[in-house]
Design a protein that fits this description.
Elements: H1 10-27, H2 32-36, H3 39-70, H4 73-100, H5 103-120, H6 127-151, H7 161-194, H8 208-225, H9 233-236, H10 244-257, H11 259-290, H12 297-318, H13 324-342, H14 348-376, H15 379-411, E1 414-418, E2 421-425, H16 427-449
Antiparallel strand pairs: 1-2
Helix pairs in contact: 3-4, 3-7, 3-8, 4-6, 4-10, 4-15, 5-6, 5-8, 6-15, 7-12, 7-14, 11-13, 11-14, 11-15, 11-16, 12-14, 13-14, 13-16, 15-16
Length: about 450
């Protein structure tokens, strides 16, 4: 009788089943292929991939068009200002409309509108017309991206949000590489094909890229139109212009009463402030300290992009093992550390390594931050929160790129003699270190803001 095995009670069997289910959920994160089998997410992902590729293809072409008309580097630089203005002037107001309008229709309208505007670019004859179109394009992008992010939780289950954001962000990075790295090749191929077609023969040439990009937005609009969201205007609320002020106040009050959300958005902005210095001063640091060709910045930025891809992909797994809040805080902290290490060792191989690791941290914090907001912000106000995030990103990047070089020039090359200790200061290196320190302090502030009860 002593050797006879005891039969488990139904309660014990139920508890054992729950434990195995919990462990199984940790071991098996959401499948990317499984997500792409979801009809609605597939169409959203396809539209994003197509339009993003066109976006990156047009970047160089738009700059070339401005320089061809004006021959002025200052005019090219002013383009960045017009691309930032919508976030500065219209950000809070855009959030109200994103929450009030049907988000799917908003995305379709923005895609069609951007396609028409880009189609008009070859007809422009003055720099001010180009600036106006650039302003309108960024305004529509300011509507489109938050509408997409706010709609995503309505298309996939909560447990799949992290994987969906991971795949979406990874796609954005891949299309950037494709658009910037192979854009010229794509345009040449299309020009070659169009040159043999009677109707399109006159459209070939330097402006072909604009027609290609316009076409990508029309295709994106068609794919978004096939999404079945079940969303109606009445669910979100018909726009009442007398309530715009109340909606603005509601968004401000939400951020005021939610210190964690406010601190997360602010921390992302600080991270971009610090990281943006890399784009402006990276080439100067490589030239003055590492003593390599300025062209070496290309592999550094490639390493950063690859790291961002790895960081985004890893969140689908790590997000099931650790708290999203702590992952977010750690990613910002690590980003600051790697920015400092990037300029601490003047060896090109180590520069590439730390650039990649900084990219991993940046990709991680982007994915987990968006997922946290989608999971913890109610649908009725989600658009305003994501518009605030997009506005902070744009303004922070502009400030960083505009002033990092000025700060570096003010610091300049300095030598301080402290007795037997000689300290050399380099403007680019010191500014990058200051950027990393700023990012680290923002992670500490965020950690202190999160209440102890949610640090688990």
């Amino acid at each position: 009788m002593g050797d006879k095995k005891r039969t488990k009670t139904s309660f014990e069997q139920l508890e054992e089943k729950r434990i195995y289910e919990a462990l199984d959920g940790i071991k098996r994160p959401s499948s990317y292929l499984g997500l792409l089998k979801e009809r609605n997410f597939l169409f959203l992902w396809m539209g994003q991939a197509i339009s993003n590729t066109g976006d990156w293809i047009i970047v160089v072409a738009l700059v070339a068009l401005i320089y061809r008309i004006t021959g002025s580097a200052l005019a090219v630089g002013a383009l960045m200002g017009f691309k930032i203005l919508p976030a500065v002037l219209l950000g809070p107001l855009v959030g109200v409309f994103v929450d009030r309008f049907n988000r799917k229709r908003t995305m379709i309208f923005c895609d069609v509108g951007r396609g028409i505007l880009i189609f008009l670019l070859p007809l422009t004859r003055s720099i001010f017309q180009i600036y106006l179109i650039a302003f309108l394009l960024e305004t529509m992008a300011l509507f489109f991206t938050p509408a997409k992010d706010a709609l995503l939780p309505n298309l996939v289950e909560r447990e799949h949000l992290l994987a969906a954001n991971s795949l979406s962000y990874t796609t954005t990075q891949l299309t950037m590489v494709l658009g910037l790295g192979f854009g010229s090749t794509i345009v040449l191929i299309v020009e070659k094909i169009w040159g043999h077609l009677p109707f399109f023969r006159d459209l070939a040439g330097p402006y072909a890229v604009f027609y290609i990009d316009a076409f990508t937005f029309f295709v994106s609009a068609a794919t978004v139109a096939m999404i079945a969201t079940g969303e109606t205007v009445s669910e979100i609320g018909k726009i009442n212009y007398l309530q715009v002020k109340d909606d603005l106040c509601e968004g401000i009050e939400f951020l005021r009463d939610n210190p964690t959300v406010r601190a997360m958005i602010g921390s992302v902005g600080v991270a971009i402030l610090g990281g943006g210095c890399l784009y402006t001063l990276g080439v100067v640091y490589l030239d003055q300290i590492v003593k390599v060709s300025p062209n070496a910045i290309g592999p550094v930025l490639t390493a950063l992009a690859i790291g961002m891809l790895i960081g985004a992909l890893s969140m689908s797994y790590l997000g099931r093992l650790f708290s999203k809040r702590l992952l977010f805080v750690f990613s910002i902290f690590a980003f600051g550390i790697f920015l400092i290490l990037f300029v601490s060792f003047p060896y090109y191989e180590l520069v590439l390594l730390f650039a990649a690791l900084a990219g991993v941290s940046l990709g991680s914090l982007t994915v987990v931050g968006r997922t946290f907001l989608q999971e913890n912000v109610k649908d009725e106000i989600r658009g305003r929160v994501f518009v605030a995030l997009e506005s902070v990103l744009r303004v922070s990047l502009f400030i960083s790129m505009a002033f990092a070089g000025i700060i570096a020039d003010i610091i300049g090359q300095r030598v301080f003699n402290l007795g037997s200790l000689i300290i050399h200061f380099n403007g680019a290196r010191t500014t990058l270190i200051l950027g990393g320190v700023l990012v680290i302090f923002s992670s500490y502030f965020l950690f202190k803001t999160i209440q102890p009860s949610v640090r688990k």
